[in-house]
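lol ok so funny story. i was supposed to be doing the assay writeup but got distracted and ended up predicting the structure for this chain instead. priorities right. anyway since i did it might as well share w the group, maybe its usefull for someone
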Amino acid sequence: MIEISKLTKTYDRGTKALKDVNITIDDGEFVFITGRSGSGKSTLIKILLKEVEPTSGRVVVNDMDLRKMPRRYVPKYRRRLGVVFQDFRLLKDKTVYENVAFAQRVIGESSRTIRESVPQMLKMVGLSSKYKFFPHQLSGGEQQRVAIARALINRPEILLADEPTGNLDPHNAMEIMGLLEKINRRGTTVIVVTHSHEIVDLMKKRVITIDRGMVVCDEEESGYHYED
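and the output, tada:
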């Protein structure tokens, strides 16, 4: 599903965020990307989202070469990706229902489709009873569930989660990881960026560790721990 080869990203003043990165992720995998702050994890996610262009190398997602993709195709490509962030990024003046529905309204889905799909998605993330609540009435874990529902409502093939548990306590963090695992079992490829050793150790998934812009470890149930 994702093939990254000899990927390098150099910013101004010659700073290399990524150096000759090679990664292959298969359809339906659950993968953690770990590393200390500034290691290049977020740059990699931004490249996959077509927010940042690489300096050199090749990035292919579902047979689409991102470096050759015309700009007019980028919005359509991004609809095939679901994205979850650490800070939730919910619309504070919208209800839970409206936050999830917003993602479908942006792409022009019909009112009938929205009425059918949003309740189903809220049921999957365990928030059916709180569809009229506003974000400030929810716990951090519940807000992240709303963000996940919004990311999944358009049925993406890949879910990118950038530090999805960074603002959560350990209990809520593990609930969110359990939800992501459930989503993965339904067929969605899940890529989680995290610096949490505890979550990585408990989940026992494939772990790709990036340090100083380079892949230093890539294995199932990795025992490699970088030093902060």
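Residues 170-185 form the longest helix (16 residues). The chain has a mean pLDDT of 92.
back to the writeup now i swear
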